[in-house]
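If you are new to this repository, start here. Below is one unmodified record pulled from the training split, so you can see the exact layout before writing a loader.
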Amino acid sequence: MNNWEDSADIIFKNGIVFNPLTCEWLHEDFAVRDGIVIGTGPGYSGKQEIDLKSSHVVPGFIDAHVHIESSLLTPNEYARLVMQHGTTTVIADPHEIANVCGTAGIEYMLQANQDIPLDVLIMLPSCVPATPIDECAMTLSADNLRPFIGREGVIGLGEMMNVPGVINRDSVVMEKLTLTSIRDGHTPFLTGPMLDQYIASGLQSDHETTILIEGKEKLQKGMYLFIREGSTERNLNHLIPLVTTCTSSRCCFCTDDRHADMLVTSGHIDDCIRKAITQGCEPELAFRMATLSPAERFQLFDRGAISPGRIADFCVLENVRDCRVCATYKKGTLITPDTLKTLPSQPLSPLSQQWPFKTRTPTPDEIRIRGEGTARVIRIQEGQIGTKAEYLSVSDKNIPDLSRDILKIVVASRYYPDNIGVGLVQGLGLKRGALASSVSHDSHNVIAAGTSDTEIIAAIGTVVKHKGAMVARDGSAEVSLPLSLAGLMSELPYEEVNEALAGLHEITDACGAIKDPFMYLSFLALSVIPEIRVTTKGVFDVNRFCNASIFMKES
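And here is the target side for that same chain:
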């Protein structure tokens, strides 16, 4: 029998500890050895004692679904930022970098995560490209993904966006579903028998739910519901009434796509908890959704609670309702600003030589819209990833139409330089200037919109010059954030990325743009979310799943 006197490395004393297994707060001590909780309550002693002074202690937060690339940060900088907010584990789908770099992108993310204290657990990208009509560096088949199964840090299959392929039992899709028993779904607006077929094929979760009735049906039919709160995908307020004592075990928080500036100013999962409590969610249920619920969903029985046998990941709060994190512990070790500053930078070779960027600056003739009549216009929905199709009377002589907020949008392929698509968008709000970016889900072609062809072309030109960047222009004034890693992520410290984003937003704000215009812009080519998008081939009707002309009929 072990001598309990010598069994612990650290005794954490006098904490008010949240137990998500029972949703209660317990004034108790807990003992840690080799980064693992070995026991709770009295009767333990060890080499060191840390007095928590009656502070509230909760398990480390877990993000149930995120694309680290969307932060615009490298994994070490992402870890340096989110761990300050109490996050100790994220479930990441690297399909952004996989679209651009193929299997080398997945390998990079796995290697990059080895030297950081944040646990980044990988869900393998299931849809690269997102659809058969999309472009990417390398089509990932089940054979391409299979060697990653069983690798340390790989826990399942990421969001299955090919809903028609699942429902029609496409052999390529079905083979991917056999790779692992943990499979994330992707079911925007899916309901009824089609949802039944999708779930029956083995998909288990959804993070694309936007309305209450949709979320309720998915919970009733056995899905895990990931309540998302990203830079522009703001679904928490609409869905939080679904969380009850009975459903909280099936609900988790996720951020999906959250730029670095929002992580700096608002936080991470701690922000989701604060907002949920503000909306009337019981604090105990909110904390459960941020800890034990995602751990159980992904069968991570080694975390999610401060209980015997689990990793000693936890954070200390200033107070419960505000969820202000004043200290984060990973495996029982305090994560300090100095610790995070010393995180090693990830080697970029050979990845830096493997990502394609063949985009060229288009000519005025290549982005010219010709015709008049009833046009298909993409209308942005504020706070949502989905778009609406508007059918408006438009003439090529009146584009842009600032009185109706109708702008030209251009998508230039990074893989095939002659593929350049053009469409119309409503809702960006620009009164002057232009913006362009090499972040454009999920293929990450170069996307741009603006109030004149001259400025659109100039903005794209700057993106091309950097081989990846975010650019805002207002006449002769221009600000850019180079994205030197795959045209998706900056190699700069997060503080400098945050500062650069502030400079971009200073211009876009002055030009009248919607808040976070680059995130909205990045989704306007995403061909798996209804109703209408624009790709390198022009307008794409997601509901009918086909390309379409700008004008309903030729003039």
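Two things worth knowing about this chain: The CA atoms of residues 20 and 288 lie 5 Å apart. The mean pLDDT is 94.
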